[in-house]
């Protein structure tokens, strides 16, 4: 029975309203006449901040007054305290009547069996209460510090209805306070209480995990238990919790469990891009590259969003190139993607990048990928200008035929001309739409812009707003031509037609191969669906 009580005290004896449990335990020990154990229980209770701390102290006073000290204290404690009292009262070493000759030698009563005098009993009881008053005072301060938070808890039980904002704030502040006190047992008990009322709020589960991780020692099983309860009971459809759990299991070297967690959330919440990437990269990290390929192909095939499918295809191509050293298959993956999205410049930039990875570089292959996009009539014209300039840059560096370079210059100038005409036509249309109705001869003509000069035409800059959606995507390319920062905002000054040797590539930067060329994936900012 005592073992069950101890289990109960360990589980919830530190809760603020656990007085009933303590009282039941004390009553059971009293009924068995185990008064020294009752005193030990009161010592634990009087140092525990509970709602009925005053009542508990009064109950202990009555207990001390109703029972003799030698029964409520252990033998060692009683003898120590009695010796101190005897010195204080200057009593004889052996109080009470001296033994008579009728008592046989060796049968004298033990010291703790000799009852103390009334004066000794009074002083011993006072000393017992004196030490407990100090405990009670410290406990009263602890109760006062927590009472505000406890009174702010209006719903300590679980309910499907959301908690009020003030309730959530109260729990957060209560946890902050308890963590500052650095009492590990009380902190864990408070977290468990909090997770009853706040079970539907994953932030509290994650905070509990973070706290357990900050502790010294091996707490893997405790952390695993928290994740298990959160993900399998309360939050079976919360991807963030499952991803955190999978990360923890992988960090523990449990790859199979991590894969199982990710597969489960992928089944319950399909089409989540973050889960797809985590599953793929988990297999890559544990060396199963074939499984990664299967997952890549499955997600590309089943993707309902063309943009997301292209993103996965680009990652798959880079994976094949860098991890499996299979550039030919990577090219096939991207060419297949261009069949479904023929005007997407990012796919062609990746093809160019793959061509540049070969050693030696196949000039015709790279130029062919550039021409595929430049010759697309429905592709964005400003992007075609960029690709034409990339082509000039590339041929200036690698081509052995000057005629091919000059032909690329001509193609570049043609694209520029088309872009200017498109821009001019668009400006005229906008001007007609926004022009005010005609007024009399006195209308102000100062607002009419002067005709463009030859110099202003040669330095005309085009906005690349049409290429905006691809600016952030281009940072993923390694070794791409034309990653000049100026072209992400506007075209650089176009070369005069009379200068056939114009290259202007000395200001360009070649992106280097490696992780730094790909930029951040930003795949954790929100849940993307494919």
From TrEMBL:
Residues 501-515 have a biased composition (Polar residues). It comes from the Eukaryota. GO terms for cellular component: commitment complex; U1 snRNP; U2-type prespliceosome. Transmembrane segments: none annotated. Gene3D superfamilies: Tetratricopeptide repeat domain. Residues 454-493 have a biased composition (Low complexity). SMART domains: HAT (SM00386). Belongs to the PRP39 family. This is CG1646_1 protein. It comes from Fopius arisanus. The gene is CG1646_1.
């Amino acid at each position: 029975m005592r073992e069950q009580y101890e289990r109960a005290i360990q589980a919830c004896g530190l809760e603020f309203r656990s007085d009933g449990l303590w009282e039941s335990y004390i009553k059971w020990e009293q009924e068995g006449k185990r008064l020294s154990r009752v005193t030990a229980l009161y010592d634990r209770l009087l140092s525990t901040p509970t709602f009925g701390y005053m009542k508990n102290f009064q109950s202990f006073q009555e207990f001390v007054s109703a029972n003799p000290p030698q029964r409520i204290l252990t033998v060692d404690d009683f003898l120590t305290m009695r010796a101190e009292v005897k010195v204080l009262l200057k009593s004889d070493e052996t109080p009470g009547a001296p033994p008579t000759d009728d008592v046989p030698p060796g049968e004298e009563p033990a010291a703790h069996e000799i009852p103390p005098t009334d004066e000794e009993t009074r002083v011993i009881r006072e000393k017992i209460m004196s030490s407990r008053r100090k405990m009670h005072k410290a406990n009263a301060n602890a109760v006062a510090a927590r009472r505000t938070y406890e009174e702010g808890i209006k719903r300590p039980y679980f309910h499907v209805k959301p908690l009020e904002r003030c309730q959530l704030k109260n729990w957060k502040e209560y946890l902050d306070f308890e963590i500052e006190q650095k009492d590990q047992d009380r902190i864990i008990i408070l977290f468990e209480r909090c997770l009853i009322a706040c079970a539907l709020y994953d932030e509290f589960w994650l905070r509990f995990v973070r706290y357990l991780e900050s502790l010294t020692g091996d707490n893997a099983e405790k952390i695993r238990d928290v994740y298990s309860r959160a993900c399998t009971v309360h939050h079976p459809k919360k991807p963030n919790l499952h991803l955190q759990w999978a990360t923890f299991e992988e960090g523990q070297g449990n790859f199979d469990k991590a894969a199982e967690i990710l597969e489960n959330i992928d089944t319950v919440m399909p089409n989540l891009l973050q889960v797809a990437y985590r599953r793929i990269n988990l297999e890559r990290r544990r060396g199963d590259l074939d499984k990664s390929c299967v997952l890549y192909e499955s997600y590309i095939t089943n993707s309902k969003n063309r943009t997301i499918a292209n993103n996965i295809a680009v990652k798959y191509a880079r994976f094949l190139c860098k991890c499996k050293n299979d550039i030919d298959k990577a090219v096939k993956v991207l060419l297949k993607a261009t069949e479904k999205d023929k005007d997407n410049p990012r796919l062609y930039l990746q093809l160019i990048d793959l061509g540049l990875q070969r050693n030696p570089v196949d000039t015709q292959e790279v130029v062919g990928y550039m021409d595929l996009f430049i010759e697309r009539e429905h592709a964005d014209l400003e992007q075609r200008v960029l690709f034409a300039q990339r082509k000039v840059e590339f041929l200036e560096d690698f081509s052995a035929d000057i005629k091919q370079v000059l032909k690329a210059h001509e193609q570049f100038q043609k694209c520029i001309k088309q872009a200017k005409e498109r821009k001019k036509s668009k400006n005229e249309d906008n001007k007609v739409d926004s022009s005010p109705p005609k007024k009399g001869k006195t209308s102000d003509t100062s607002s009419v812009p002067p005709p463009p000069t030859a110099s202003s035409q040669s330095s005309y800059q085009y906005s690349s707003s049409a290429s905006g959606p691809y600016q952030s995507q281009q940072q993923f390319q390694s070794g791409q031509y034309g990653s000049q920062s100026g072209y992400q905002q506007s075209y650089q000054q176009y070369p005069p037609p009379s200068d056939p040797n114009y290259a202007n590539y000395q200001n360009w930067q070649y992106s280097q191969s490696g992780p730094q060329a790909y930029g951040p994936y930003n795949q954790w900012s929100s849940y993307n669906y494919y």
